[in-house]
Design a protein that fits this description.
- This protein has 258 residues and is of the alpha/beta class.
- It is built from 8 helices and 10 strands.
- α1 packs antiparallel against α2.
């Protein structure tokens, strides 16, 4: 019976992904920006819904172009933020090769980066700054990889140079997943797990909540370097979640309100 339930739930998810591919290959390129935003929000909400997950947002969504800086736990993180505010994400180049999801990310405006290549970072910074100057919102995961959500990895500062060049604020976003009012590691996409394995775990754990907390924005002109800016974003997220950075003493978490 469990196998049948899993097959049915994964089947619905695959159909939704196929619908998304159809949209981005047909009408999406011809829609005005506001309509694209609405479609992206609807589609991302539906991804969460098919996973049996709801979205809870705390804090006020600011207006205007900016760069969101988030901690990174799962492939679901992108859809959680896009369900709130569709953004141009920076993602590792390997994602482009993922079945269906890679094509969707590519056509939805994701900027792919080849890790370890310095010239690639400079190109991405230029692309990010250009898009934000055009009025778009961007989002990055400065840890560079996923964690279980029980700690933060040190934030890389390079991509925040785009906020400095575009003269836009940085909004730290604290992300965590809950199940039955307890922090859940089910969505964590770590330790060599395949995408299908991760999706299977998620769809078989209904009732989860993706919680996004929008923290006070940071203004690049108030920081001497991008490293100081990245550290401020890191500290804000670490303090809110009550987790340590790379093994330091844990902080007391803020109340989740769950």
């Amino acid at each position: 019976m469990r196998h049948l339930i899993l097959s049915a739930r994964l089947g619905r998810m695959i159909l939704h992904l196929l619908l998304g591919v159809g949209i981005v290959l047909s009408v999406y390129p011809f829609l005005r920006l506001s309509r694209r935003t609405s479609v992206a929000r609807w589609w991302s909400h539906r991804v969460l819904s098919l996973c049996g997950m709801t979205l809870e947002v705390k804090g006020n969504l600011p207006a205007g172009p900016r760069i969101f800086v988030m901690n990174h736990i799962s492939w679901l993180d992108i859809y959680a933020l896009n369900a709130l505010k569709p953004s141009h994400f920076v993602a590792k180049s390997e994602i482009r090769g993922w079945p269906l999801i890679g094509l969707l990310c590519d056509r939805a405006g994701t900027i792919f980066i080849e890790r370890g290549k310095r010239h690639a970072v400079h190109q991405v910074i230029h692309q990010l700054a250009e898009r934000m100057q055009q009025g778009h919102t961007a989002a990055v995961f400065p840890e560079g990889t996923t964690t279980r959500g029980d700690q933060l990895l040190p934030f890389h500062a390079n991509l925040l140079q785009a906020a400095i060049e575009a003269h836009v604020p940085v909004t730290p976003v604290a992300l965590r997943y809950w199940h039955h009012e307890q922090r859940s590691e089910v969505p964590a996409y770590v330790e060599g797990m395949t995408l299908v394995e991760s999706m299977s775990k998620v769809v078989m754990t209904p009732g989860m909540v993706a919680e996004l907390t929008l923290l006070p924005e940071l203004h690049p002109e108030e920081f001497k370097t991008r490293h100081a800016l990245a550290k401020a974003a890191q500290d804000a997220i670490s303090h809110h979640l009550g987790v340590s950075v790379a093994g330091t003493t844990p902080l007391r978490p803020h109340s989740s309100g769950m």
